[in-house]
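S.,

Sequence below, as promised.
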Amino acid sequence: MQSPANAYSRVGLESNVAASSPHLLIVMLFDGAILNVNSAAVSITHGDVAGKGQALSKAIEIISSGLKASLDMNAGGELAQRLAALYDYMVSRLLYANLHNSEPALKEVATLLMELKGAWEAIRDHADAA
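The prediction came back faster than expected:
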């Protein structure tokens, strides 16, 4: 059974998603992936194998079924292809991190995600200024 606090939190998240622009939804995906990669690193530090696995599963799901799946391969051309390859690389690094408890691999993926998020936010900022 779901606690009232969890239910409230879920409703709040669903409301945010429903009211968000497509651009903001991508930012939210980046935030979720980064949060889970960082959570996996904390779990490794504390020897929490289950927590590490859960966080990495969520990060992989967000990257594969969220960020990569949102790419428009027809309209995006070479850029979309390169981003898809980068997302695949991130997933492979997360799998490596899971097998080897590699905090450097997690840091690498978190850095890549933060750089892409920053670029994505700059696109929005540029569009808002125009």
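The chain has a mean pLDDT of 88.

Coffee later?
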